[in-house]
Specification:
Layout: E1 6-10, H1 22-31, E2 35-42, E3 48-50, E4 55-56, E5 59-60, H2 66-72, H3 79-89, E6 92-97, H4 103-110, E7 119-123, H5 127-136, E8 141-146, H6 152-161, E9 166-169, H7 184-192, E10 196-201, H8 205-211, E11 218-221, H9 224-233
């Protein structure tokens, strides 16, 4: 029987709860998500803060301490807090790097994690960072996010060059029906070359039903409950 794709909750259960917050993460866990995708930035005191943007209310997070940043975003957290929570809950994490200057801090924080639950570190903006990260953190899976439409051969070549384990096309805005941009044959090709493939985030039911049949390692979604229902039905 074919393994179902992993359900990756994009910024948590973000279709119903504020993204990158404890409520979004807790409800994604209770819905049954396999991994939670979250975004990482660095603060003035060089702590790793969970937030998608580099600014809060037009003020750079790099000019705030961790406590200042947390005070501005209700339900926010530091990376170490969510790592400990995820290990206790036995749920995986998919960490998207938004600030390339955190290599040392991220390596230090992750050195004791990754053996009890799946952790993936990803980036769309700095592939050289990912190669340096992998050299220091061989125990952590790495994903390269491709925003542009590229043939699978090019994504495989770049993933080899920059030490990616996972190829992650981010093509949700490239077509009204992005499921038409990739098929099982292309995913099988990338698998045979040694790479897993993760799908962009999608929330439309019919698109999710199509994507669920293509052979992705994981599908990212703002609505993990809907995707889980679709996978159960199929």
């Amino acid at each position: 029987m074919e393994r179902r794709p992993l359900v990756i909750a994009h910024r948590g259960f973000s279709s119903k709860y504020p993204e990158n917050t404890w409520s979004a993460f807790e409800f994604a866990f209770h819905a049954g998500a396999d991994l939670i995708e979250l975004d990482l930035v660095l603060t003035k005191d060089r702590r790793i803060f969970v937030n998608h943007d580099l600014e809060i209310e037009e003020m750079p997070i790099r000019e705030m301490t961790l406590e200042e940043a947390k005070s501005r975003v209700a339900g926010s957290m530091e990376l170490i807090e969510v790592l400990e929570w995820a290990e206790e809950k036995k749920i995986g994490l998919y960490l998207d790097i938004k600030d390339r200057d955190m290599l040392g801090e991220l390596t230090c924080v992750l050195k004791d994690f990754g053996s009890k639950t799946t952790i993936v570190v990803s980036s769309a903006d700095d592939f050289p960072f990912m190669r340096r990260f992998k050299e220091l953190n061989d125990h952590i899976l790495t994903a390269l996010l491709f925003r542009n439409l590229l043939p699978p051969e090019d994504m495989v070549e770049l993933s080899r060059k920059y030490s990616g384990d996972i190829i992650h096309p981010c093509w949700e805005d490239k077509d009204p029906y992005p499921s038409t941009l990739i098929d099982r044959e292309l995913i099988n090709y990338m698998n045979n070359e040694g790479f897993q493939v993760v799908c962009w985030h999608e929330e439309r039911e019919e698109e999710l039903r199509t994507l669920a049949k293509k052979g992705f390692w994981g599908i990212t979604t703002n609505d993990p409950a809907l995707l889980l229902r679709i996978l159960k039905d199929s």
